[in-house]
Amino acid sequence: MLDIIKEDVVISGIGAHFAKASNMEELKQRLYENQSQLTARWPQAAGGVCNMIGEVDSNHFDNSYFGIHRQQCTFMDPMHRLCLERTFEALLDAGVNPTEVRGKRIGVYIGSSIGENDNLFLESVVSGFGITGHSRAMMPNRVSYWLNLKGTFSFLFLLHTPTGEEV
Asked: Where is the signal peptide (predicted)?
């Protein structure tokens, strides 16, 4: 039987960033107006390959706010930066000031799948930031470190099969 303590709380909020929409309201508006979220990668599809892509801007990041060294941030997978920013947004959406949860017993659970920036890993090995900058398992650790959280953390790796199933 699961012991539930009266003080246990779930912080539920959403932080989102989409192609051509930096938040949920912008996405909703674009969907209502039937606007495409996709951009052409090249003029025409070559050999039947789809040339449309949904690009997410990850060029702006306040590394000092999240306690990450500038050089480490240079070699870090953009997914890590986006994860921290969306966590910040989710806390605000839930009505929680991030400074109010610092040092508390709060768990962090994150799921992710394969990213397209894995090729940056080879470049980052030389810098010494390869493992911490590209391991998906580091994402909940980064959130815990940023907020000085004392609870558990876990990472779930989602594998997408050619048939579209998640494992």
From this structure: none
